Known about the structure:
single chain, 154 residues
Amino acid sequence: MAETGRIRVAKDKAELVKALTSADGGTGPFQTFADVVVFAAALGAKHKKRVPLGEISKREPSPIRLEYFGNDWVIKLLGVTETQDIKILSTNEEEYEAQRNHIFEEYANGGLEILQSELRGAVDYSERILLLLSYERINNEQQDEEFDLSKFLS
């Protein structure tokens, strides 16, 4: 179960998370580990990909304190969406915080798996992520524009 007050990253995704940041002279598109993890969780949630963490990274990135996420609304939103239970938003009970964090971590791990496959062989991660986002936007617009007459046929 998730460590209270911290978001963990799977050990097998730690190098990817580091490569996606611009910290310590890196050229990644994100400024912090927390930014990478939030993006990955959103991507995992969009693709309904929730993957258990397995072995946890102990260093770089070590478990990330919740304070680094600024506002934890994404963590709470994913918790409510996944459980369909408003009680998970309770700030008074540690078990709900641990459950929210666990759900968030698994979606982030799923998103990192997607990024791992999408970024394989890429030289410029920023460009590849921009292409991925552009594809998603165009694909969604095309789905919105389609008009299917079959729904009117009996």
